[in-house]
Design goal:
By secondary structure, the chain is α+β, with helices and mostly antiparallel strands. About 55% of the residues lie in helices and about 15% in strands. Among the domains are: about 45 residues, Helicase, Ruva Protein, domain 3; about 80 residues, no CATH class. The longest helix is centred in the last third of the chain and has 22 residues.
Amino acid sequence: MTTLEQVEKLCTMANISYEEAKAALDAANGDLLDAIIYLEKQGKVSAPTGGGYYSSEKTIDPNAETYQDNCWGKQHYHQHHHCHNGKTIFSVIKKIGEFCLKIIRKGNSNSFEVLKGEEVKGSFPVTVLGLLLIFAFWVTIPLLVIGLFFGLHYRFNGPDLGNNTVNRAMDSAADAAENLKKSINI
């Protein structure tokens, strides 16, 4: 027994008239897939390109922002995937991961140097400094400030952070600590 819902679905999927859809479903004993194959054999619909398949499930077309019935040759997405402007949650997570990797690479290619006078006493990647500031800021910040009062200077070195503006700010902080130290010793 062919239902009106099946006829409408076949009309939408195959872009054919109600009469053609009804006849195809009757010939296939109400089986939607057999009806599509029947229509292919008659030449009323074309076979999917690229080894595609047919499905009556709701899917997400990656080129549209709405749910659609699956059509010939389109990539199948399960209905339970959440979509926002054609992006799945997995593509958003992938972009966040790529951004984090880019930041880590830049942090590893630049260094934070500790100087006493003009001599470099220590150097480590900016990534390490960032992790220390995130997870142990209550220890890291006081140590950096105390180091200023013991005559240490800090600077960034590398292709992305070695510019004069950042290092001038670091030098002015060291100079301010030195001036405060001198004013206390008077």
